[in-house]
Design goal:
Mean pLDDT: 86
Shape: globular
Number of strands: 11
Low-confidence stretches: 1-24, 1323-1337, 1355-1367
Helix content: 55-70%
Structural class: mainly alpha
Number of helices: 70
Strand content: under 5%
Length: 1527
């Protein structure tokens, strides 16, 4: 670095100026010149560059080195440099590192000046700084950017420099000021937020602490109190402060301990929390403290006992080992690589055992330390570590590890529970079959039971599990963890935990958290929740109404339905509870509750609206569960006062039946009765038992009155928006009446009501000018729509059709928004219009469905349907699709195929626009496929535009199905049901379905595993009865297999279709092979597709006729030479074997294949050998001799082949054929081929071949699989994919085939379980003897870093030391000024930092900013002192270092160079590295003391300069370490 010295006109470097400063005749004049230069810098706003800092350092050196410097000059520097700069530098606003460096330099200069200034000036400045700090502690926002005002950083920095011990001696007056200001400085820390500022302040406090031993306890106590306050506030400061004051709190020799924190639980609690802090710096500081204290305890033989958390016995080796393992665990957890962490994890078991208590209740380790390490593990970046920790916690033996006894229950019920919310924790074990419970889920059940057993106090049990439920309900959960937590809770023994408030929380929490979940998951959780409810309810603190109210969160479609296991569990529990003498829970109490609830529901005083769904469900379930629990009888018993179901129903039916004769009866009361009636019928579901029949018969009596009531409501009119709930419930009641069997009187009332609706619609058609009339139109249309959508009685249907015939002028009709809106919002008008449209098209659909007209244009046209489609939504869209479905065949009849294509295109576009509409999309998709893929359209000729359009649509649906599971299932359902055989037009679609199925992502596979587990629980979970889960992608192939297995090989039509499909499958297979040329990895999509195609080919094998058999066989033999995957070849081998067994004339076609396949594929030849091994015994007795006479020589030849796999497979098959000949008694064959027997002796001499041959003979395909016996769906789709090493998501269990035909040509299950019991085996064998290696245990890839080498806060120290990085004395200086390649410089910088080089000299400092440099140096450039010395300045630099006593060593091959192994490095060594190409110039070699070369043995005579430098630096460091050891 260079700058100008005024008056000399010279540019001089730093070294020269410093030399002048030390030898100057007039240093005062030099001070003036430097001060002038400094002023020029800050006037140009250049006071934050590195040159400026060096100038300040130069000025400080001049003042400190001149013992006779005048006070005036010192004051001049203070007044003109230090104080102005301290007022200008404001790191509070500009915290760049350069700014901080400038502040450090100025403060250091200021401290030096204060030592030589008048004492009053020093006291004044210290007073000023302390005053500013006091203001800061009172107002944390105090700061100013105004010029002249000292920044808080400046205050602290000045005090730090002033109090430095290295300042020789602090004057008594300043010392007194600093000691009195200690507390105010301490209080200021509380308001500081920046770690750098805190560390600066901490250094200042340490300096002051060292000024005097008096009052040390008081000062340390004030710091400890601050630490405690900050810890309670959740700050990171306690760890910074504890590390900074560690020499006082925890002196290395444990002497002069004024305040012993080791005996305080409060301190150890901080350490435990620090272990699991989110910030790495706090964890590092905690580790530093823990290592330091345990090392002190161990080396000094200290005995420590805090109140509860920590104890250390003097000389206890066990304690030392436990803490070493504990610290090793924590330090290893800072790594991210699992291969480093994994070997250390088992050491936790030793730590866990150390928590076991003795008879006195004492253990080596308090369990809170376990909690700390568990916290750290559960927040680790690696899911492996998190999963391991979770399983370790869940499998703890809490009887031996007293965590609950020592107060860790809150952790388990709160923080730990929240830490297992990650779905990836609940993965199925590798290799476990589908349906296996994840270890974490299974362990949860054991953990909760373990907790229940350990907590012997009933109150403690209730409190613990109530905390768990509170944690669950007060947080948002993903489905999988919550499911397993609820399952675990459902299995703990019955415990009275849930009071009325908890039931309410459960009701609100569960219902709100699961709204967006899929039905199966929600049903699963609710099933477990139901078991929790009846298991943990406290009947002493709850009422029946609380219980039944909670049951309203359970959906009938997903969990709580009459006839399911959950319903039975609830009714059984209710029966048991009411049979006791529990207050409020007797049978009389329940009956009273039912009666009161019905009375309350029918009471209308002060009410103007119907019941909400929750009230209805509560009442209905209370009635039905009481019936099934034998609490409520159907009919009155002997006692006339006994309340029974008859009384309940009479309350409802009498209310409805009294309406016609009581014109002033409350309409609301009748509507509520109708709601309860509908609720009862809905909740009964599809059951047809005595209860169902009794309720139906009782309510039928009120059907006619119901219709009359609705007619009355229609007459009075639903006129306002507030009337819509009434309209909806009346329509629901009417649907219930019309859809069930009823008498003639009710039918007549329905017809009368329909007439009334049509009259109203016709009258109001012309009166659409008001909101009232529009709502009345909606009422009439909705009622008529309810009737027509449910009408099934033929007489009623015919009468309704006759009424509708003349209504074409006003049905369908539009719903026009009137000019006067009457306060109805736009959204409400949208709802009204949608409801009106839905009801109108219900009427139209009814008419179209029940008329047999050739053309329906007289009522509604296709154009009308298409016009209405864009404005439709929800149910209206589905009804429109149904109407279009009816009209499309009529267009075909009329020859309007182009119109059909146009309709399909328009409706398809509509469907695509609604892909993201959630569950409604599936309703639309079902309606669309039902409309488009109907028989009338699918039977058009192949060249028909309709057929072409359907193929185009099916292709797009398949493409959508790849991303949206379930789409292809809907398509296939309509294809198989509507398209008649032989399906020639849609064979390609069938083939696509045969090979359909994507590769699941990890997240999808996890969910599938969970769903499989839930499904494996069977009817024990009601959701499996109501909403059974099956993987949709697999179900595509399942339904296709079921369809194919319904065919008969004897049926000509079926036979024709099967052969067409088989041909298409083989063509597709060949296409996939061509597209996936090269290596196909196992379980890749191409592998799976080929496997699926061959599976269906096996299914269709019985349909192959003799005429087609030769062609199929030849194609399969060709495929054997192309296929690389053994699992696919196995199916091809199987088909070939069965064909050769059925058609003996194909045998001659087998032998030429040995030549053709051997030329192409060794694996194909092995497969051909397998076929030969199976075919022989299946031949007729007459043809067996010829077969074996031909086969044995061919196989014998191959048994001598050079190719290892061909040779051992041929030897295995030869042995098998020979044994078959013996078993079949073919003596002639045995005698003619005696050489085979001699060959076996030769084979036995090769142990490796014998061993591998035995493995092949024991493989399932040769040893177990029978081509005929094992021909079943189970074998093809489940057993062989498993044995073929395909992922389990390719296995299709037999129980998925729920609609499999009983009389199929292919059995569903194998009659023999032998094949299913086989284990997977390898397909390839080693050509050499296998060698087994055992893992070496004991050593691990981790070593504890000693605390003395740790820097608790690297980042802060980097900033603090930025301006202080100066040359270390008496060390190695590495000079790289001759090197110009940045990567080499970056690598050498890193090497220098690692091996402790004192100074790294570089040609240009700008290289350090290069990204390539930094990528190789990592962060080494931050820690090693770097100096810039230009190549041109090297001679001067080298001579200067030589004068300072350094030995100059060059790395170069010269005539006199010394081999490295013979050279001993002096301590003070300067190592000069040469240029990459030219080495060290000759003029510099002359300046060196010695040249050293690296001994070489290769041909190349040079090493990379980075490698050479690293070798030399390491050798220097090695020699110094060896010398140190010797000393």
């Amino acid at each position: 670095m260079r700058f100008k010295i005024a008056g000399h006109g010279l540019i001089m470097d730093f070294i020269t100026v410093k030399k002048i400063a030390s030898e100057a005749i007039n240093p005062a004049k030099l001070i003036e010149q430097v001060v002038s230069q400094i002023k020029e810098h800050w006037n140009n706003k250049r006071f934050i560059d590195s040159v400026f800092c060096d100038v300040l350092f130069l000025l400080e050196s001049i003042i400190s080195s001149d013992q006779d410097v005048k006070t005036d000059y010192v004051h001049k520097v203070l007044d003109e440099v230090c104080l102005p700069l301290l007022g200008k530098i404001h790191p509070s606003f500009d915290s760049r590192v350069e700014n901080l460096a400038a502040l450090t330099s100025v403060s250091s200069l200021c401290g030096t000046c204060l030592l030589k200034a008048e004492e009053s000036r020093a006291v004044e400045l210290v007073d000023q700084c302390l005053g500013l700090l006091g203001s800061y502690s009172e107002d944390a926002d105090w700061s100013s950017e105004e010029g002249g005002t000292m920044d808080i950083y400046g205050c602290v920095s000045v005090l730090q420099q002033t109090s430095k011990p290295s300042r020789n001696m602090v004057s008594p007056s300043i010392q007194s000021k600093l000691l009195r200001g200690y507390l105010s400085i301490t209080r200021a820390v509380k308001c500081m937020k920046n770690n750098l500022l805190i560390n600066m302040t901490l250094n200042c406090l340490l300096n002051i602490m060292n000024l005097s031993a008096d009052g040390k306890l008081h000062r340390l106590t004030s710091v400890w109190e601050l630490i405690c306050e900050e810890f309670e506030a959740g700050s990171e400061k306690p760890y910074i402060l504890l590390c900074g004051m560690s020499n006082h709190f925890f002196p290395v020799n444990n002497s002069n301990v004024v305040l012993d924190l080791k005996c305080k639980d409060a301190f150890w609690r901080m350490i435990e929390h620090g272990i699991s802090k989110r910030t790495p710096s706090s964890r590092k500081q905690t580790m530093y403290l823990l290592k330091r204290i345990t090392d002190i305890c161990d080396t000094c033989g200290v005995s420590v006992r805090s109140e509860n958390l920590f104890q250390w016995g003097s000389g206890s080796k066990v304690t030392t080992e436990i803490w070493e393992d504990y610290i090793l665990l924590l330090e290893t957890l800072e790594e991210k690589q699992v291969h480093i962490i994994k070997p250390v994890l088992p050491r936790l078991s030793k730590v866990i055992r150390a928590t076991k208590t003795d008879q006195n209740g004492q253990g080596v380790l308090h369990t809170s330390w376990l909690t700390a390490v568990f916290r750290r593990m559960l927040m680790h970046e690696s899911i492996y570590v998190v999963r391991w920790a979770a399983n370790t916690i869940l499998t703890l033996n809490l009887n031996l590890c007293p965590m609950l006894e020592q107060g860790q229950g809150k952790y388990f019920s709160g923080e730990f529970l929240l830490s297992i919310q990650e779905q990836r924790l609940f993965v199925r074990p590798e290799g476990a079959p589908a349906g296996t419970c994840p270890p974490c889920g299974e362990a949860l059940t054991g953990f909760f039971r373990n907790c229940w057993e350990v907590l012997d106090n009933p109150l403690a049990k209730a409190s613990f599990f109530k905390d768990i439920i509170t944690t669950i309900l007060s947080n948002t959960w993903s489905p999988v963890p919550l499911q397993f937590i609820f399952e675990a809770l459902s299995k703990i023994p019955s415990t009275p935990i849930l009071d009325a408030a908890a039931l309410l929380d459960l009701k609100n929490g569960v219902s709100s958290s699961m709204r967006t979940w899929d039905g199966f998951t929600r049903g699963t959780v609710l099933c477990f929740c139901g078991k929790i409810l009846i298991n943990l309810i406290n009947t002493e603190t709850t009422l029946p109404l609380d219980f039944f109210s909670t049951l309203t969160i359970f959906s009938q479609q997903e969990s709580l339905c009459r006839g399911t296991s959950l319903w039975k569990d609830v009714s059984d529990w209710l029966r048991i509870v009411t049979n006791g003498e529990q207050k409020h829970w007797t049978t009389t109490d329940i009956k009273t509750c039912i009666r009161d609830q019905i009375t309350k529901n029918l009471a209308v005083k002060g009410c103007e609206s119907g019941l909400d769904e929750t009230d209805i469900l509560l009442t209905v379930r209370m009635i039905l569960l009481s019936l099934d629990a034998d609490i409520l009888a159907l009919k009155p018993r002997s006692e006339p006062d006994t309340y029974c179901l008859t009384h309940c129903l009479q309350s409802l039916s009498s209310t409805i039946n009294d309406f016609p004769s009581h014109p002033y009866m409350s309409v609301i009361k009748v509507e509520r009765a109708l709601q309860l009636m509908g609720g009862l019928m809905t909740e009964l579901g599809e059951t047809t038992d005595e209860v169902h029949q009794f309720i139906h018969n009782s309510l039928v009596l009120s059907f006619t009155s119901t219709v009359i009531f609705i007619q009355q409501r229609l007459t009075e009119g639903w006129k306002e928006i507030s009337d819509l709930p009434s309209l909806n419930l009346c329509c629901d009641a009417l649907s219930l009446v019309v859809g069930r069997s009823h008498d003639a009187q009710t039918s007549e009332a329905v017809v009368t009501l329909s007439k009334k609706c049509l009259q109203s619609l016709q009258t109001l058609e012309q009166l659409q000018d008001s909101a009232e009339n529009q709502i009345r139109r909606l009422g009439a249309s909705a009622v008529l729509g309810a009737i027509t959508s449910r009408a099934a009685n033929q007489k009623l249907v015919h009468r309704l059709l006759s009424l509708l015939q003349p209504s074409t002028s006003f049905i369908p009709s539009t719903f026009v928004k009137p000019s006067s809106e009457n306060g109805i919002s736009q959204k409400e008008w949208g709802v009204l219009a949608s409801d009106f449209m839905t009801s109108q098209w219900k009427i139209v659909h009814f008419y179209l469905r029940n008329t047999q007209s050739v053309s329906c244009d007289t009522f509604v046209s296709m154009e009308t349907c298409i016009d209405y489609l864009p404005v439709s939504s929800g149910e209206a869209t589905v009804i429109l699709f149904s109407c279009i479905k009816i009209l499309l065949p009529l267009l075909i009849i009329e020859g309007r195929q182009d119109t059909v294509v146009q309709v399909l295109r328009i409706t398809w576009t509509y469907l695509l626009e609604r892909q993201g509409k959630g569950t409604s999309f599936w309703i639309y998709l079902e309606g669309y496929t039902d409309m488009a893929f109907q028989r009338a359209l699918m039977t058009r000729p192949q060249d028909s535009p309709v057929t072409q359009k359907l193929m185009e649509l099916s292709g797009e649906l398949l493409e959508i199905g790849e991303e949206k599971s379930g789409v292809v299932n809907v398509l296939l359902k309509h294809l198989l049901s509507q398209c008649p055989l032989p399906m020639e037009n849609f064979l390609s679609l069938v083939v696509q379905c045969c090979m359909f199925g994507p590769i699941y992502k990890k997240q999808d596979r996890l969910l599938m595993d969970v769903y499989s587990y839930v499904s494996s629980l069977g009817p024990r979970l009601a959701v499996n009865q109501l909403h059974p889960w099956q993987p949709k992608t697999l179900m595509v192939r399942v339904r296709l297999v079921e369809f194919l297995c319904q065919l008969s090989p004897q049926n000509p039509l079926h036979h024709s279709f099967a052969n067409l499909l088989l041909s298409a499958l083989l063509e597709k297979y060949q296409e996939v092979v061509q597209l996936s040329s090269g290596n196909i990895f196992i379980n890749s999509l191409a592998h799976r597709q080929k496997n699926r195609l061959m599976q269906f080919a096996v299914v269709l094998e019985p349909f192959i006729s003799q005429g087609d058999s030769e062609g199929v066989l030849l194609r399969l033999l060709e495929f054997l030479s192309l296929e690389m995957q053994p699992s696919v070849r196995l199916f091809q081998e199987w088909i070939c074997t069965r064909l050769l067994a059925r058609f003996l004339d194909l045998i001659p076609r087998l032998w030429p294949a040995f030549v053709t396949i051997r030329e192409k594929s060794s694996s194909g030849l092995c497969s051909l050998l397998h076929v030969v091994a199976h075919v022989g015994p299946l031949q007729t007795a007459e043809s067996q001799e010829l077969f074996y006479d031909t086969a044995l020589p061919k196989v014998l030849t191959l048994s001598m082949a050079h190719h290892f796999h061909i040779r051992i497979h041929a030897q295995a098959v030869l042995s098998l054929l020979w044994d078959q000949c013996k078993a079949l008694g073919l003596k002639g064959v045995l005698s003619r081929h005696g050489i085979v027997s001699a060959c076996f002796v030769l084979f036995d001499e090769d142990n490796n071949s014998t061993k591998n041959m035995r493995k092949i003979l024991e493989s399932y395909f040769l040893a177990v699989l029978d081509p005929h016996r094992d021909y079943s769906v189970e074998t093809v789709f489940h057993t062989l994919p498993r044995l073929g090493l395909l992922n389990d998501d390719e296995w299709i269990p037999p129980h998925y085939f729920t609609m499999y035909p009983k009389d199929s040509f292919m059995p569903l299950m194998n009659p023999d379980p032998s094949l299913a019991k086989c284990e997977e085996s390898a397909w390839h064998f080693r050509a050499q003897n296998e060698t087994e290696s055992e893992e070496t245990g004991g050593d691990i890839q981790k070593k504890i870093m000693p605390w003395r080498l740790m820097n608790p806060d690297d980042e802060v120290m980097e900033e603090l030391e930025y301006a202080k990085r100066r040359q270390r004395s008496d060390g190695l200086i590495l000079v790289t000024s001759l090197i110009d390649k940045v990567p080499n410089l970056g690598g050498l910088c890193r090497t220098s930092e690692i091996f402790g080089v004192s100074e790294f000299v570089i040609n240009k400092l700008r290289y350090v900013e290069d990204k390539m440099f930094q990528s190789l140096s990592v962060t080494a450039h931050k820690w090693v002192p770097i100096r810039e010395v230009y190549e041109t300045c090297l001679p001067e630099f080298l001579q200067q270092k030589k004068s300072q006593g350094y030995t100059l060593v060059g790395v170069e091959q010269t005539a006199n160079s010394v081999p490295l192994n013979d050279f001993k490095f002096p301590v003070k060594t300067l190592l000069l590295l040469g240029n990459e190409k030219e080495g060290i110039p000759a003029d510099l070699i002359g300046l060196l003391d010695v040249c050293v070369e690296i001994p070489q043995q290769g041909v190349i005579r040079s090493l990379n300069v980075h490698v050479s430098g690293a070798i030399l630096v390491w050798e220097y460091r090695r020699q110094q370490m060896m010398a140190g050891k010797a000393e």
